[in-house]
Write a structure and sequence with these properties.
15% helix; SHSP domain-containing protein; alpha+beta; 184 residues; 4-stranded mixed β-sheet; 10 strands; A-crystallin/Hsp20_dom; HSP20-like_chaperone
């Protein structure tokens, strides 16, 4: 990780071969029970407008399933959250790149990681706030120990030259990911 202009550059990992990672789905009923019985950390991570909220896109969507984010306009999917002042994420597309910007929860370990599955064209943003008793936290009921958002990437995304930056200010963390477009 390198620091540049107030931001910390995160390494984007491509070699995560964790068996069974994200294999336990987070159903809507399970999520609602978990959130109602959880403490403050869970509510911060999964709150309305968070990139990790299963309700970010207007209806329930398991954040461990890959979502085709760049097939949708941010204004359309996030309109109601923006009107209520609850939106903490944005994405856009330019002629040169895809860009994702998001506030991040500041809880527990706060060790945000970005992984890219080059073959599957999926990017995942995850972090852990509590240590799992047995094995890798991502292989079981992952939501009890951390958070994830998996995103399908467009066909022209240049994964090898993608960059991720995290910055902290006034007790908040902010993530920005830039994914250049391949030049065909």
């Amino acid at each position: 990780m390198a620091r540049s202009s107030g931001s910390l550059k995160l390494e984007i990992n491509t070699d995560d071969k964790t068996p069974g990672k994200w294999s336990v789905p987070l159903g809507e009923d399970v999520f609602r029970r978990f959130l109602s019985s959880g403490g403050g950390s869970e509510k911060v991570v999964f709150s309305e407008g968070s990139i990790f909220s299963p309700f970010l896109f207007g209806k329930y969507f398991d954040p461990s399933d890959a979502f085709p984010l760049w097939e949708f306009e941010a204004d359309v999917l996030l309109g109601s959250l923006r009107s209520l002042g609850q939106c903490r994420v944005d994405w856009s597309e330019t002629d040169q790149a895809y860009v994702l910007k998001s506030d991040l929860p500041v809880v527990g370990k706060n060790n945000v990681q970005v992984y890219v599955d080059v073959n599957g064209k999926v990017m995942e943003i995850s972090g852990q706030w509590k240590t799992a008793a047995n094995g890798d936290w991502r292989s079981g009921r992952w939501w009890e120990y951390g958070y994830v958002r998996r995103l399908e990437l467009p066909g022209d995304a240049d994964l090898k030259n993608s960059e991720a930056f995290i910055s902290n200010k006034d007790g908040y963390s902010f993530l920005e990911i830039k994914i250049p477009k391949n030049k065909f």
